[in-house]
Design a protein that fits this description.
Blueprint (H helix, E strand, L loop, with lengths): L13 E5 L7 H8 L7 E6 L9 E5 L2 H11 L3 E2 L2 E2 L1 E4 L2 H28 L3
Antiparallel strand pairs: 1-3, 1-6, 2-3, 4-5
């Protein structure tokens, strides 16, 4: 995004939400991001695993609506939690997955070395 507040032409209309209450429902998120029920939101995806609980992706129909929601709701107190609202960055998510795979491979290699040298 440029300094003038304009969107990059390739900006995806997807926001990543962190610090959500674990009990939040999809309906709660729809009401929060589209209180007038005007159909701004295309999809809401909540994290359900241990690593992703308390997070969600909110997909809008267009990037300007996503930008307005980001500006309005980042830092907003929702269900006694201050929300962190960010643009979704697919390349960052991909790097995290690669890193986890690398860690797993190193752990397996370390386990083999420990067996080879008789270390517990």
């Amino acid at each position: 995004m440029s300094r003038a507040g304009k969107l990059a032409p390739e900006q995806l209309p997807v926001l990543f939400i962190k610090n959500l209450n674990y009990e939040v429902t999809d309906g709660d998120l729809f009401k929060l991001f589209d209180p007038d029920e005007t159909g701004l939101i295309r999809q809401v995806r909540k994290g359900i695993s241990g690593e992703t609980k308390g997070t969600a992706y909110v997909v809008f129909w267009n990037a300007m609506d996503a930008k307005n929601a980001l500006e309005k709701l980042n830092g907003f107190n929702f269900q006694n939690r201050y929300l962190v609202v960010l643009w979704h960055q697919p390349e960052k998510t991909l790097k995290m997955k690669e890193t986890k795979e690398d860690v797993q491979a190193r752990q397996e290699s370390l386990g083999q070395l420990k067996k080879q040298y008789g270390i517990d």
